[in-house]
Amino acid sequence: MTNDLENLTAEAGLKEADVPVLLAALLSSSRRVERVALSSGAVWIKRYGTERASRWVSLQRMLANLIKAPFLRPSPLLGDEGMAAREMRRVAQFSAQDVPTARVLYSSGAAIVFTDVGDTVDRQLHHVLNNDPVAHDNMLVHCAAELGRLHSKGLCHGRPYPRDMFLKDGRVGFMDFEEEPDRVMPLEVAQARDIWLLFLQVATRAKLGGKTHDRAYKAWADVAPAAAVAELRKLTGFLGGFLSAARLIGRVHMGSDLRRFIVATSYLKQVS
């Protein structure tokens, strides 16, 4: 491990003094995600195997097969090193298509060291939340447009939330590739699920309401593959069957997740 890390001084611009600091962080901590400050800048360590797999994953797979809803299928369960390998493979896949990602500096077993990409889109949205609603919503629309461009390249993310995006030179970059939905469902279904998941955020976070919803959907649909648009129509048609029950439950208790589901699904069902 030490020799591999020392090689980073030339490949990644790390200074020799950074090697023992990074090595100590890799060996001494068990946190899932950790920021490590080095003399040449910060890096991030991501570890797999620090969290127990949820029983919901198996139940979700059974439910998806039972009701014939492929978009509900979870990504394949892998071991810790398999999850790390999946993330690195997905990073390489996105980079090969000129999509900004955090660069892999080093990996060892179930741990990966990434470059720092700065603030996530989520943090930048919070920065302008109360003082610039136009800039806030423009960023949401930009995310939808970039997701459409991602889909046009034959890719899908699996969890396109603002916390898993960043901005680089005016473009939206993506990180945290723990999901691989196109392994368990057709690509166009995975892409339709991507935009639905993003709209769970857009629908309730937009400060300017329906105007932003319209702009965000158009920004995605204008560049997304026609097959993904068609699958979104099927997805929202299926989920639309649960809206009445969701609204009924909401009369008793309208939690944030339920509200996102109702607003996003209702809107996309109307326009798709």
Automatic annotation (TrEMBL):
It comes from the Bacteria. SUPFAM superfamilies: Protein kinase-like (PK-like) (SSF56112). This is Serine/threonine protein phosphatase.
